[in-house]
Amino acid sequence: MKHSLGFLALVEGAKKRIAECGTAEVRARLESGERFHFIDVREDAEFAVDRARGARHIGRGVLERDVETLIPEKDAPIVLYCGGGFRSALAAESLQKMGYTNVISMDGGMRAWREAGYPVETGDQAKS
Q: What backbone torsions phi and psi does residue 16 show, to the nearest 5 degrees?
């Protein structure tokens, strides 16, 4: 997908103010049993097709509205991902502005997760 220059500039700015990690780090954290909120911020239709195993869905369009109810602890560890790491970077910045202190965006998003061959769930298996 070709992104607009304005969107890319917005993401670039957000990435300077947030923490990011790679898919291998997230996978290792999951495998070690570490407890954290693994959140897919893609659109409902994207999530319905597939998602990283163990991820919970809070769509980008409702994240700010719903997150405090779903994750009330502002210091809770949260890893966000989207399709390629752009929307999750914007979402991480937004959560930081809301007072969340332990938020990370997974660089490369679902695309990189699939390319690495990491576990994926399909269909309605993980709808929350």
A: -80, -20
